[in-house]
Amino acid sequence: MLGFLLFVVGLPALMWWASGMPSLLPVPVVRGILAGFLMIGGLSLSVGTIVYMKQRGKGNPMDAFGYEVAPRTQHLMTDGPYNFNRNPMLTGTLTYLAGVAIWLWRWPAAIVWAAFLVIMVVQVLSEKKRLRRDFGQEYADYCKRTRRF
To answer: What is the value of pTM for the model shown?
Structure first.
């Protein structure tokens, strides 16, 4: 629920507010289709990854700069969506927010997206250290064969 409020509601609201609270409708058709595709696709990837991790990993990836926010998975997730990249949940969130920025079509929304990207890259690098510590060679091998994003 925290992730939903922060990433699905809070950040888009911040993007909208930073953009001067523009009208959300009407949106040009092509831009609306592209934005909708990115938002739906990104949310689907993020939610699907969360469900997959809960079922297969028996935990949650929510780790904020080294602090455990929710119980961590007990084994390294390398299959399912994690077979394609090491951060599918974040990839989905960034895709969703890119769709929001395209829908709003304002520079401040793009700046909020870029700031979030920078913060998340720092978070991913922090998490990488923990994963190396927790999973050792298994994680190193996974990194060699799977992209970060």
So the answer is: 0.88
